[in-house]
Amino acid sequence: MFKYMVLKTIYDVSDVDVVERSRFDMFFKYFLKMTPEEDVINSSSLTKFRKLRLKDADLLNLLFPLL
């Protein structure tokens, strides 16, 4: 989940878009350490993770606190 959040932050896309892009984009699959045939997570799982685990905190501050 964390890697999905990193991709979401870097590319500034929505939860649905990052999951959809990881379905076809080989760079995303490689970054997520997935095989080309492997299926991706459901976008609602990513949204739930972000809202429950990160408590709507600013993700950039969590990832890069020195910036």
Task: Explain what this protein looks like in three dimensions.
- Helices cover 63% and strands 0% of the residues.
- The protein has 67 residues and is an all-alpha fold.
- It has one domain (2-63).
Please identify the structural class as seen in this structure.
mainly alpha
Q: Write down the overall mean pLDDT.
A: 84
Taking the sheet with the most strands, its summary is: none
User: Beta fraction of the residues?
Assistant: under 5%
User: What is the CA–CA distance across the termini?
Assistant: 23 Å
Low-pLDDT segments, ≥5 res: none
Bulk shape: globular
Total tally of structural domains: 1
How much helix is in the residues? 55-70%
Give me the count of strands: 0
- Number of helices, where a helix is a run of at least 4 consecutive DSSP H or I residues: 5
Query: Secondary-structure element order, as H and E?
Result: HHHHH
Radius of gyration: 12 Å
Secondary-structure blueprint of this entry?
Layout: H1 2-11, H2 15-24, H3 26-31, H4 43-53, H5 59-63
The gist of it:
The protein is an all-alpha fold and 67 residues long.
Entry keywords:
globular; mainly alpha; 0% strand; 5 helices; 67 residues; single chain; 63% helix
